[in-house]
TrEMBL record, chain A:
It comes from the Bacteria. It comes from Streptomyces morookaense. This is Acyl carrier protein. The lineage of its organism: Bacteria, Bacillati, Actinomycetota, Actinomycetes, Kitasatosporales.
Automatic annotation (TrEMBL), chain B:
It holds the Pfam family EryCIII-like_C. Gene3D superfamilies: Glycogen Phosphorylase B. The keyword Transferase applies. It comes from the Bacteria. Keywords: Transferase. This is Glycosyltransferase family 1 protein. One of its GO terms (molecular function) is UDP-glycosyltransferase activity. It comes from Streptomyces morookaense. The keyword Transmembrane does not apply. One of its GO terms (biological process) is antibiotic biosynthetic process.
Length: 99, 389
């Protein structure tokens, strides 16, 4: 068992962490030409499928450990919310839970 | 002898496996009829008793829809209206043909609904395994939303006293795949994995066989029958990736929309329609959208894959291919010549991909395909007739 250190709570740090998690989960995705910002949409801009979001959830869970309830967050999303889900929504959720 | 009514949506990939099973049943002396859109069913099923069903007029989905937006459209604007439009035709077919068993495609929901309302035994034909996957497991509100769509359809066209998920017949679900491809998945116990069922297609498209260069790998690129007009960028990048490797690789590209302008040279051959089954045994790899049928047909020939899923069940099927070790996934929207080329190099160069594809092929062959599906349906029909008062 490894213990997860409490990550920094500010949104910029969370955005960096989330971007790393994206690269880790989807190494084949070319981010060089597409910077990941708060407004980036997972599906339309990053070409992620729901199955990728599930994988990303797992990776974020590893990075943030018990600090953030990702399954609970994704489970709370209604269909239209998932359709338009942005990086910023996830970042703000994480940052809010870490404060 | 028994009477089987096949209820199918106007989708080639869903009709073709049913055609194979229907032919097998017919060959064993059973009576077979169809309920569906006459044009496409007649084209694929050949001479057959077809009972016409209406379908919604505009079946063209906005091509840009992906992910959950595509899922919402699929249910709200395709599957539900299709069920409503088809239901009266299915009823008329039942009255005219008086089937012992309805074989309802999983996306022709009218089949299951009319069957349960009229109390006719029915089997589900699951031509893709996506409904078995846990792709939505982390998103219960999406599952609930689909459940509401199903409840609405049942109230309008089915038997509201029933409570089971009518995407799955309570008695028999035929899955045209095997666990070697799906991996572990939660399936209802009445599911039978029969593997792909391939129809002998009436008139295969012609092909200039002399074009093949025995000294090079030949790769087939196909985005299936339902993505015309969507794949321009991807097909162009595939062609560029092949040209970068033209010393080792040549490609046949199915281009129904003509987006590549009819290119035909020793490295790239584009054709509006390709004789896919005839070509597959000679292919070194297939690049496709991870449609279930193209994947199944490729693996049935032991051919490894580069998969670029677009939407619907394709991400699930693509993940199955990757997990089985039989291919590599690239991005459809963002795939470029570099990533597609690298994936091609890997599946062509590393024998483990072909070995994995051949493992799936063996499981498909062992599963029995159309013959096995027909045997399950025969037994089901016989059991139902015996159980009758």
């Amino acid at each position: 068992m490894t213990t997860t250190p409490a990550p920094r709570a500010d949104e910029a740090a969370v955005l960096t962490e989330l971007t790393e998690a994206l690269h880790h989960v989807l190494p084949e995705i070319g981010f060089e030409d597409t910077p990941v910002t708060m407004d980036t949409r997972f599906v339309e801009d990053l070409d992620l499928e729901s199955i990728d979001l599930v994988t990303l959830t797992g990776e974020l869970g590893r990075r943030y450990g018990g600090h953030v309830d990702f399954p609970g967050f994704f489970a709370s999303l209604e269909l239209p919310e998932i359709i338009g889900l942005t990086v910023g929504q996830v970042v703000r959720y994480i940052a809010g839970r870490l404060r | 002898m028994s009477r089987f009514l096949f209820v199918v949506p106007p989708l080639v990939g869903h009709i073709n496996p049913a055609v194979a099973v229907a032919a097998e049943l017919g060959g064993r002396g059973h009576q077979v009829a169809w309920a569906g859109l006459p044009g496409i069913v007649g084209e694929l099923a050949g001479r057959a008793e077809i009972h016409a069903c209406d379908v919604p007029r505009d079946l063209q989905r906005p091509p840009g829809l992906r992910g959950m937006a595509a899922l919402r459209y699929l249910w709200q604007d395709f599957l539900a209206p299709l069920a409503g439009a088809m239901a009266p035709g299915v009823e008329r077919a039942v009255a005219a043909f008086r089937p012992d068993v309805i074989v309802a495609d999983q996306q022709a929901l009218a089949g299951a609904l009319v069957a349960e309302r009229l109390g006719i035994p029915h089997a589900t034909s699951a031509t893709t395994s996506a409904e078995f996957s846990a792709a939505l497991a982390g998103m219960p509100k999406v599952e609930e939303w689909i459940g509401r769509q199903l409840d609405g359809l049942r109230a309008a066209f089915g038997n509201p006293l029933q409570t089971h998920d009518f995407r799955f017949s309570p008695d028999l679900v035929l899955a045209f795949t095997t666990r070697a491809l799906t991996g572990d998945c939660a399936v209802p116990p009445q599911t039978r994995f029969v593997g792909p069922a391939l129809a002998h297609r009436a008139v295969p498209a012609p092909f200039p066989w002399e074009w093949r260069d025995g000294g090079r790998h030949t790769v087939l690129v196909s985005l299936g029958t339902a993505n015309t007009g969507l794949g321009g960028h991807f097909l162009a990048e595939c062609a560029a990736a092949v040209r970068d490797r033209a010393r080792r690789v040549q490609a046949v590209i199915a281009d129904p929309g003509g987006v590549l302008g009819g290119v035909s040279d020793p490295d790239i051959l584009t054709m509006p329609r390709v004789p896919q089954l005839a070509l597959l045994s000679g292919m070194s790899a297939v690049v496709c959208h991870a449609g279930h049928n193209t994947v199944a047909e490729s693996l049935l020939h032991g051919v490894p894959l580069v998969v670029a899923p677009i939407r619907d069940d394709q991400p699930v099927v693509a993940a199955q291919v990757v997990t089985a070790g039989a291919g590599i996934r690239v991005r459809f929207g963002r795939g470029d010549r570099r990533t597609i080329g690298a994936a091609l190099d890997a599946v062509l160069g590393d024998p483990r991909y072909r070995a994995a594809a051949e493992r799936v092929r063996e499981s498909f062959r062992a599963a029995g395909g159309a013959a096995s599906a027909a045997t399950h349906l025969e037994a089901f029909a016989t059991g139902q007739q015996r159980g009758r008062p």
